């Protein structure tokens, strides 16, 4: 568990981060979202002490970070940034293994970890291990950057706009990969983004920053349904709020017994996509399957009821 306790950074008499407190549970993703200059990066960097707080403290599993040498801290906290920050003259394997090497892991263990991570990121180790960053696409470089942050099994991983430079399709895939890998490894992740859509897709919790202050810290559905301030409401965007909400829940949550003919959706499909399929096919019910086996059906009426329940 990471506890951020009234942390503040003052630059030239003005707070860039103003008494922010939040607790990040182990094994979850917290997305920090806000407009440019709201203090997101400064907040993130106070956690690994790339920026020294003016006041307040951060505790990792109860231990204040001020008690730890900075080097030790940075090994316990992975860090991934936009543009990945890879060493261009080091192979993919050396880049990913950088922190384990610093920690003195045996070679075999580093190699096994590098291969495990490359596999997780769908980059076959035999093909990618010995390449250099310049021989990878932007999306692959970004995956290596995230793999490097995960390599030493850190207590937590900080990510600053890691997907900012990716085109929308690759970006969506990168987000899905991160979610899947985070679940598989049980990692604790704090990710900074200016994109509310990304924050609600990725975060178990979303922390909204405005002018240095934390204005709301809640689950995505609550942020969408009950924005705490006008600013949060603006960030969420009025028009497609019901759709954003539906994108958070899978069909399996409202599946009903009995099968119907017509288009098929998997139980893991989001209600937003199921709605889209209903509208596109002109049906008011869809057959639901799980791994190819019939599970039941979902109706347009039930999807609508789900959207309205939060209204
Ligand atoms: N080293 C510094 N010296 C003085 N002011 C700074 C410094 N770093 C950040 N600031 C100021 O603190 C405020 C918050 O900056 P920060 O980079 O944390 O915002 P951000 O939300 O991450 O923005 P962006 O999305 O544009 O990166 C800004 O007003 C910025 O100008």
Automatic annotation (TrEMBL):
One of its GO terms (molecular function) is ATP binding. The keyword Magnesium does not apply. GO terms for biological process: quaternary ammonium group transport. Residues 2-236 form the ABC transporter domain. Pfam families: ABC_tran. Keywords: ATP-binding, Nucleotide-binding, Transport. Belongs to the ABC transporter superfamily. This is ATP/GTP-binding site motif A (P-loop):ABC transporter:AAA ATPase. It comes from Salipiger bermudensis (strain DSM 26914 / JCM 13377 / KCTC 12554 / HTCC2601) (Pelagibaca bermudensis).
